[in-house]
């Protein structure tokens, strides 16, 4: 496995683990999600660059646009949580707990 | 040059470990900036300067600035950094995971399992001046031309993404609308 491939894969898995094993703040989990999107952007860009295929360069740009949508939706939920519960602690989101 | 690319990749791994170990969001955003910077360096080494500029402008200059403003919602008197034991334990675990995997894949030295950057990417930008890319005899770089295709052949996707962005604006408006509508019930 090339170092670049290994870096992209391990960065994706690490960000996913950071999102899975979240701790206190909702914003930290959203930052891990942004890390996933960044790794996907780098991976798609390197794919277009290494294959010398210019036409594939649109895919990372579109992915960035959709990731901006996702980040803004996540941040809106963060603001809603902070306004309802007073903080963005994930332990406050326990309405569905049995 | 390959060593520079390797140091950018290592910078990316260090950044992702510092985000994934879930410190206080102030420090997590710093790790994300490091990750984006190292990733941009990696892209530039492969000759994609336009995509790196777009990443810096839109991602760091747009999205992360908004995240930094929202970090005010995560304010606490003693923010946890990487010196605190829970964060340090997670960072150490991820570090061991990544470098254990690296030794597993690359532990044999320059053997059959290792393909360096110069072997995989036979690109003149790696070896010399990026302005020596005379493959296409074109004024603009390949990735910039590819993004320009979004406006010509990819016109439908452009309209779709603009529509999705407008929709997201209304989603955000409705989620944060108070007075018992949307996701807020009380305020």
TrEMBL record, chain B:
<keyword id="KW-1133">Transmembrane helix</keyword>
<comment type="function">
    <text>Core subunit of the mitochondrial membrane respiratory chain NADH dehydrogenase (Complex I) which catalyzes electron transfer from NADH through the respiratory chain, using ubiquinone as an electron acceptor. Essential for the catalytic activity and assembly of complex I.</text>
</comment>
<keyword id="KW-0520">NAD</keyword>
<dbReference type="Pfam" id="PF00499">
    <property type="entry name" value="Oxidored_q3"/>
</dbReference>
<feature type="signal peptide">
    <location>
        <begin position="1"/>
        <end position="15"/>
    </location>
</feature>
<keyword id="KW-0732">Signal</keyword>
<feature type="transmembrane region" description="Helical">
    <location>
        <begin position="87"/>
        <end position="106"/>
    </location>
</feature>
<dbReference type="GO" id="GO:0008137">
    <property type="term" value="F:NADH dehydrogenase (ubiquinone) activity"/>
</dbReference>
<keyword id="KW-1278">Translocase</keyword>
<keyword id="KW-0249">Electron transport</keyword>
<feature type="transmembrane region" description="Helical">
    <location>
        <begin position="49"/>
        <end position="75"/>
    </location>
</feature>
<feature type="transmembrane region" description="Helical">
    <location>
        <begin position="149"/>
        <end position="173"/>
    </location>
</feature>
<comment type="similarity">
    <text>Belongs to the complex I subunit 6 family.</text>
</comment>
<dbReference type="InterPro" id="IPR050269">
    <property type="entry name" value="ComplexI_Subunit6"/>
</dbReference>
<keyword id="KW-0472">Membrane</keyword>
<dbReference type="InterPro" id="IPR001457">
    <property type="entry name" value="NADH_UbQ/plastoQ_OxRdtase_su6"/>
</dbReference>
<keyword id="KW-0496">Mitochondrion</keyword>
<dbReference type="GO" id="GO:0031966">
    <property type="term" value="C:mitochondrial membrane"/>
</dbReference>
<keyword id="KW-0830">Ubiquinone</keyword>
<keyword id="KW-0812">Transmembrane</keyword>
<keyword id="KW-0813">Transport</keyword>
<keyword id="KW-0679">Respiratory chain</keyword>
<protein>
    <recommendedName>
        <fullName>NADH-ubiquinone oxidoreductase chain 6</fullName>
        <ecNumber>7.1.1.2</ecNumber>
    </recommendedName>
</protein>
